[in-house]
Amino acid sequence: MNRIVSLLYGLFAYAVFFVTFLYAVGFVSGRIVPKTIDSGVPAPLPEALIVNLALMTLFALQHSVMARPAFKRWWTQYVSKSIERSTYVLMASLALILLFWQWRPIPATVWQVEEPLFAAWLTALSFVGWLIVLASTFMINHFELFGLHQVVNNLRGKPMPHMRFKTPALYKLVRHPIYLGFIIAFWATPHMTVGHLLFAAVTTGYILVGIFLEERDLVDLFGDEYRTYRQRVSMLIPWRKSAQAAPLPPASRKASLSR
């Protein structure tokens, strides 16, 4: 019964995530959804800045703290490991839903592209960014990333396989294609308002901090294998600063060969 409940919980968390992701596309692009980044009654500028920054900070704290290994070790003393990831995904989705609901628009224009073809190109580029985000999750393990693999394995009574380092498709071009997709989606717009600019700038800053924290964890997890990858593949911009990775020091090379 507990395994069935865990599966239903995981399915619910995934459904909330997927609807939230689709809403995020409309929220940022200003299409289809009832509340977008630029819709609603504008608040006084100080109120809008304080509320919007608080909403983004809440999401960043939840997203970063719950992802840290130390927090996971503490958290899984009280929550089953099979639903730890689903809980993280659900909490992140709820933090985003709160942001969508309470976001204060700041409609002053930063730039407006009047030429129809260029405006359409920027809009298409934004959707390409979202496509990169979604496609990149499937290139690794989409269903493990969002908690479904864990609850299904729990239902079957099977342990999760050990994590192994892999770099499929876009991960051979940049180390963080998911984050690259978000940056493209947030910045490529024919109409940039102050509110949209605030959202794009703060989330980009958070992404850079998140990369630092994530890569520190990946080095702890995969050691020299990830260090070599980091030397060989660019972080976000798909070009190489060197043709091949620097050789590992003898001790590190020996450790790699022994694994």
SSE layout and pairing:
Elements: H1 2-29, H2 45-65, H3 69-75, H4 81-102, E1 109-112, H5 116-140, H6 142-145, H7 148-156, H8 177-187, E2 191-193, H9 194-222, H10 224-232, H11 250-258
Antiparallel strand pairs: 1-2
Q: What features would you describe in this structure?
A:
This protein has 259 residues and is mainly α. 67% of the residues lie in helices and 3% in strands. It is built from 11 helices and 2 strands. The chain has helices at residues 2-29, 45-65, 69-75, 81-102, 116-140, 142-145, 148-156, 177-187, 194-222, 224-232, 250-258; strands at residues 109-112, 191-193. Strands 1-2 form a two-stranded antiparallel ribbon. The radius of gyration is 20 Å and the shape is globular.
Q: What helical percentage do the residues reach? A: 55-70%
Give the number of helices: 11
Read across the widest sheet, the strand sequence of neighbours is: 1-2
Order of helices and strands: HHHHEHHHHEHHH
The CA-CA distance between the termini, in Å, is 39 Å
Global mean pLDDT: 87
- Category by helix and strand content: mainly alpha
Largest sheet: 2 strands, antiparallel
Rg, Å, rounded: 20 Å
Question: What are the key terms here?
Answer:
259 residues, mainly alpha, two-stranded antiparallel sheet, 3% strand
Give the structure's gist in a few sentences.
The protein contains 11 helices and 2 strands, in the order ααααβααααβααα.
